[in-house]
Amino acid sequence: MARRFLAQPFALGPPLLRAGTRPRREGLAETDDIETHIRDCILAVLFTRPAERVMRPRFGAGLDAQLFEAISPLALSAVEYRIRESLAAAFGAEVEVQEVTVEEAPEQGAMLIRIDYARRADRLSRRLEVVT
Questions:
Q1: Which stretches make up the IraD/Gp25-like domain (predicted)?
Q2: What single DSSP character describes residue 92?
Q3: What is the pTM of this model?
Q4: Crossing angle (nearest 10°) for helices 34-47 and 73-90
């Protein structure tokens, strides 16, 4: 039997379609694709504010709090540090974060975040890019 993982965010009701995913079965909030699970968990860490989760007050990088802040080299390095520390705390045993790069995106006022990581099970490098 294949391992099952929680799908982030939960998908209740009719099948949900998101870009790059397959339809989910009605009423189920699970997936058997480990790549989708890890990507969704990384996004959850990035966009969850610290102290937002009651039982895990140090969980999350809180990128949404950076939304209206000025983009400067100091702010970019602070965001990079926050992401690196949050991912290391959340995925210490399952995922190895190899590199986190935060730079100003070509669009005015946006940040490009590149996260290079590898699952500890197979050591294959993967990259997730997010523009905020």
A1: 34-122
A2: T
A3: 0.76
A4: 130
CB count within 10 Å of CB 86 equals 23
Burial 2-19 (b: 16+ CB within 10 A, else e): eeebebbeebeeeebeee
The tokens describing 108, both together, are 């005015």
Token readout for 26 is: 């009605």
- Phi-psi category of residue 9: left, alpha or beta, with phi > 0 → left and psi -120 to 50 → alpha: beta
pLDDT band at residue 76 under the 50/70/90 scheme? very high
Q: In terms of pLDDT, which residue wins out, 109 or 84? A: 84
Of 86, 84, 69, residue with least CA distance to 114: 84
Cβ distance 83 to 70 under 8 Å? Answer: no
Interatomic CA distance for residues 54 and 109, integer angstroms: 32
Distance of CA 25 to the CA centre of its chain: 23
